[in-house]
Amino acid sequence: MTLVIAALVIWAAAWALNVRLAARGQGLLVPLIFGLTIIVVWQLLVRGLGVDKVILPAPTEVAVTFWENLPILWADFVQTILKGALGGYIMGVIAALVVAVLVDRYGFLQRGLMPIANFMAALPIVGVAPIMVMWFGFDWQSKAAVVVIMVFFPMLVNTVAGLADTTAMQRDLMRTYGASYLQTLFRLRLPAALPFIFNGLKIAATLSLVGAIVAEFFGSPTVGLGFRINASLGQLSLDMVWAVIVVAALAGSLFYGLLTLAERALTFWHPSQRSQRH
Amino acid sequence: MKGSVGPVLAILAVLVAVWYAAAVPMNVKEVLTQAERDGAVIEPGSAAERRDVGRWALVFSNVENLGATWSSERSRLPAPHQVVAELWKSTWVEETTGRRGIVRSGSLSNRSLVYHGGVTLGATALGFVIGALAGVLLAVGIVYSRVMDMSVMPWAIISQTIPIVALAPMIIVVLYSIGLPGLFAKAVISAYLSFFPVVVGMVKGLRAPDHMQLDLMRTYSASKSDTFWKLRLPASVPYLFASLKIGIAASLVGAIVGELPVQRGGLGARMLGGSYYGQTEQIWAALFVAALMAAFLVWFIGWLERRTLRAMGVQA
Q1: Do both B143 and B240 map to the same domain?
Q2: A59-68 and A70-77 helices cross at what angle (nearest 10)?
Q3: Domain range annotation of chain A
Q4: pLDDT tens-digit readout, A165-222
Q5: Could you tell me which chain B residue has the CA closest to the CA of A127?
Q6: Above 0.85 for ipTM, yes or no?
Q7: What pTM, to 2 d.p., does this model score?
Q8: Is there a single domain that holds both residue B180 and residue B286?
Q9: CB atoms B166 and A244 under 8 Å
Q10: CB-based contact A161:B293 (threshold 8 Å)
Q11: What is the pLDDT of residues A113-130, one digit of tens each?
Q12: Superfamily of domain A67-277
């Protein structure tokens, strides 16, 4: 009982502290305190109320499991994230970029393909996972195939929108320089499309992880994050499930963070990036 | 997108043609094995020899025995008309003539896609409503409370970058084990997935009014609630609907994934069942129903958006 009261007290104290900090405009500290408080309160409530380990494990248990199973989790990470998600991501993104340039070049494709692509982008494409598992087997190839289909359409839609994002003035300038189609594409339109492309890349990053993990629910070798979640659930070792989720969350944030860094480096000229510097 | 009907139909025709063409090499091995059993002469002669031969090579050396590739029972890639036939069979035919169908038993057949689609749709809708309401409420809190903004918003944004769907099986199993009904467990996942897009979009929308407009409200000496109801909320409507469209698509994915761990009906269960028993047509049919459902849900939100905007006097 004391632990439960302690949890409530800590929650109130941390909130009061955050109110004070927020008033002074401490940017980074407030969310950190909020996150830490949730973990501490979670820990105290689980211990204080005696919550069963098979319903909600305490954060310390998850941390211990994470640490003790690092080699297993690393193997899962390599299988699902590096092979399945990243492999499919790279293929899907390149395919979408190539198709986007073609769509941009030919008005027929633009009018015929884009309504379909917009439609497909809203569909629960993850449902193709059982078919891909049947075609490409249990290993990472089938996961990469799911990811290719999942990332292709959002990437295509964003890139096509980006390639259209030049003004008549800019295109006229290129014409007065006597620039060829390819020169205009590489010097003006692709760079101008970069903010849109990065937007697509970020959406696709999350989708690729979702696709790779969910596809493993339909069949996988005995390694991989999705497999580990299912297997650990079968043994009711929820601490392991949470450890896998920590890995997935870290992978997702890392992926997104790297993309954001690349975006800052490559689209430093864009207003959305310039305003952040001051 | 004026005049895009023709090109869209042309592209769709090409896709269907590619699908038919692809069905031939995809199914050629199984079909040839069957044809050999029925006494046809196949080149090369035995299944063991054919295993190492490419699919296209088999197609060209056995042109006269390919008839079944568009009609075989257990195909790796069923032809489009087979999928359509399966769709028809597992909706209309099953319900009107099947032993368990609605006509003969009074309740929807548990083999029909109408029933499974309904299960998924129910979980999606319930979860979406919960998630969207919670998301709007949190967004209002975030806009009006600086502490909530600074505490919660970074986490809401980070949560968009991680595959939260990985939590789905665990949520399902845990909620089942403490005795909650399956519909609710799936709705929790749907709610969870639609929650964050709505929060992020709605916060953006509630902040959309610029300084001029807010200053005008202040010169009217409008109260906080007046500013909310008459300026911020109307201004947020387009953002809200944009994020609702993302949210409802995410809800559907959540409901489908939520049906995987516990097999109690739903499109996700149909897909997993189909992949266990090699019923490709069943997977494709479930996939098509899911696609139609997603299209309908997004269209429905768009329809609501147009009605709301028109009622608000926005010229569309």
Answers
A1: yes
A2: 80
A3: 2-51, 67-277
A4: 888 888 889 989 988 888 888 888 888 888 889 989 988 998 899 889 988 888 888 8
A5: B287
A6: no
A7: 0.85
A8: yes
A9: yes
A10: no
A11: 888 888 887 788 888 888
A12: MetI-like (1.10.3720.10)
